[in-house]
Amino acid sequence: MTDSTPSNKKLHGRVAIITGGASGMGEATARHFAAHGAKTIVIADVQDEKGQTVALSIGSNICTYVRCDVTDEEQVKTLVDTTVKAHGRLDIMFSNAGMGRATHTCEQSVLDVDLSAYDKVMAVNARGMVACVKHAAKAMVEGRVRGSIVCTASVAATMGGDKFVDYVMSKHAVLGLVRSASLQLGAYGIRVNCVSPGAVGTPLLKDMFGVEDEEAEKVYESSAVLKGGVMAPRNVFDVVVFLASEDSEFVTGHNFVVDSGFSLKVGQ
């Protein structure tokens, strides 16, 4: 079980799905959801051993692991349908599954972009995100649930990049999806927001930068305007809990940037 026990159970009784929940931000958020009283947390990922270990450590009475490749819409639909069938409803979808890059031999500048690698990144980060939002929203509409959908975007969603053009494009797509979905789903009382982390110590970011833990801290700290520490996953999952809970009941279509002020350097 999780060690954290907040006094305010912001997610008491809620049923949540977290894609990409076997490691990194998804794992950290799953533990935080449990600490905030979520009734059921379904972790969806393709990392079976890690996902099963995380679910067991949180508690089998609260958390289950389901294998789901978000690039396959039928798997996403089955994930949502089985969750609703087993637990009666879906209150929260944290669409978090993503990838940084599909190749380590090319940094994906416009002049040398590998389109097969581009297709793989877009399939997860953009197409997979659409599938998760679509089927979560359908379940919430059909179940008359005033739910919350939270997507993981990035500071890259609002700026250009000197490399990783496929990743940058995919995160721009997430922001467009959130803005459109929030406009269309507001009539059903469903909120759709995204969280845009800056450089934070997750496996995805370490892989993109090609650095280990100690080097990563230097990279992250150097990117920050707000000094006094290194941003950690908890700084992001606190925002996800806020967006998933009734604390944000009138917040929708919002891109919540958590980046220690990095985006101020380049402008939004």
From TrEMBL:
Family annotation (InterPro entries): NAD(P)-bd_dom_sf, Sc_DH/Rdtase_CS, SDR_fam
Chain's gene name: LOC115964392
Upper classification of the organism: Eukaryota, Viridiplantae, Streptophyta, Embryophyta, Tracheophyta
Protein's UniProt name: Uncharacterized protein
Species for this entry: Quercus lobata (Valley oak)
Family to which the UniProt record says this protein belongs: Belongs to the short-chain dehydrogenases/reductases (SDR) family.
